[in-house]
Write a structure and sequence with these properties.
The chain is α/β, with parallel strands linked by helices. Helices cover 34% and strands 20% of the residues. The strands form three sheets. Strands 3, 6, 7, 8, 9, 10, 11 and 12 form an eight-stranded mixed beta sheet that branches. Strands 1-2 form a two-stranded antiparallel ribbon. The structure holds zinc ion. Zinc ion binds next to loops.
């Protein structure tokens, strides 16, 4: 067959295993195994990719020591909210089913290098890690558990802010969680807050930045309103590093930036210092 008359039927391709991860920051192609072994941190540029709540718990807690509670607390739909993409209740139910968590936060107790603590770990994949009545209730429950059992409280935030589908009731969770943290403080128990990408909106404006110690992963977006909203409002260009963990460290909102591979050891060091 002549070259010009060849048919252009697609050639059969054998399904190739997905071997590569493409870094969203530097576009480097990295072997997926290598990238996962590096805790989803790009070996070329150090970009910290987002982790699920369960991956994060696996990273921070001693193997086999995590005991989850509060799984009976599910999303509620007090407003019967619906938008162009359908009812909120259906979206929330789909997230519960897909991610295997009852809300945008997983709470439980576990050991960090032998020290028993209570943890609340947010999952950004669950409706943007949004703070809802269920999420606020789970965090308040975890804090109360820490008080009851005389343990430190560790919060890992990853959130776009309050869940608009629940209106003012989601905003009320800011006050509710802060009140619970005040009870923790009165009980003389430490609170370590770990800020991961992104920590914004009502979460950054409430419990995420109230830690006795606030730690952040490198490059984490930390802020309240988005860059575009602020620039449009104040009619000024913001610095390039605005709302990064590094910027917040320089301005006193964050106490230390800790690379992911050092996070557990740093947390254990802080807990050992405060819980002995
Ligand atoms: Zn990279």
């Amino acid at each position: 067959m002549g070259w010009f008359t060849k048919t252009t039927e697609p050639r059969e391709q054998a399904a190739l295993p997905d071997l590569w991860h493409v870094c969203p920051a530097c576009q480097a192609h990295v072997f997926k195994d290598e990238w996962e072994a590096a805790l989803k941190v790009c070996p070329k540029c150090g970009h910290h990719d987002r982790l699920s709540a369960r991956e994060r718990i696996g990273l921070l807690v001693d193997p086999g020591s995590f005991r989850e509670f509060g799984t009976e607390i599910l999303p509620s739909d007090p407003l019967g909210f619906s938008d162009a993409k359908g009812p909120y209740a259906a979206k929330a139910a789909a997230a519960v089913k897909k991610l295997g968590t009852s809300e945008s936060v997983v709470v439980g107790s576990g050991n960090v290098e032998g020290t028993r603590v209570v943890l609340a770990v947010m999952d950004f994949r669950f409706l943007g890690g949004s703070l809802s009545t269920g999420c606020g209730e789970k965090i308040a429950l975890a804090i109360q558990h820490a008080i009851d059992f005389n343990r430190a409280f560790v919060m890992v935030s990853a959130s776009g802010g309050a869940r608009m589908h629940e209106g003012i009731l989601s905003l009320m969770q800011m006050a509710k969680t802060c009140a619970a943290l005040q009870r923790l403080e009165r009980a003389g128990l430490p609170y370590v807050s770990i800020l991961t990408d992104p920590t914004t909106g009502g979460v950054s404006a409430s419990y995420a930045l109230l830690g006795d110690v606030n730690l952040a992963e490198p490059g984490t977006l930390i802020g309240f309103a988005g860059r575009r909203v602020i620039e449009t409002t104040i009619k000024q260009k913001l610095p390039d590093d605005f709302q990064t963990a590094e910027y917040q460290l320089e301005h006193g909102f964050v106490d230390a930036i800790v690379p992911r591979k050092e996070l557990k050891a740093r947390l254990a060091q802080l807990l050992a210092f405060r819980m002995k």
